[in-house]
Design a protein that fits this description.
Number of strands: 0
Helix content: over 70%
Strand content: under 5%
Distance between the termini: 87 Å
Number of helices: 2
Mean pLDDT: 84
Low-confidence stretches: none
Oligomer: single chain
């Protein structure tokens, strides 16, 4: 209990009253769930960006090859 009081005194002294560390760790669950949802969403979006950029690169390569073939003829 003394450590908790000392920690609170240090936090107040340093001007960090906005920090909140709950003793009941189940209060972290909503934040963890939201973090996981956003990480999965970011992974899905990154996958689609990579997939789309590969398609665009293939289109550019095909057009480049067609231009080279037309210029050679």
């Amino acid at each position: 209990m003394d450590a908790i009081i000392k920690t609170k005194d240090v936090i107040e002294y340093m001007g960090m009253e906005f920090l909140y560390f709950p003793e009941d760790k189940t209060e972290y669950l909503p934040a963890v769930i939201i973090l996981i949802v956003f990480m999965i969403g970011a992974g899905i979006v990154m996958y689609y960006f990579i997939k789309n950029s590969r398609k665009e690169a293939e289109k550019v390569n095909k057009q480049y090859q067609q231009n080279i073939n037309e210029n050679q003829d």
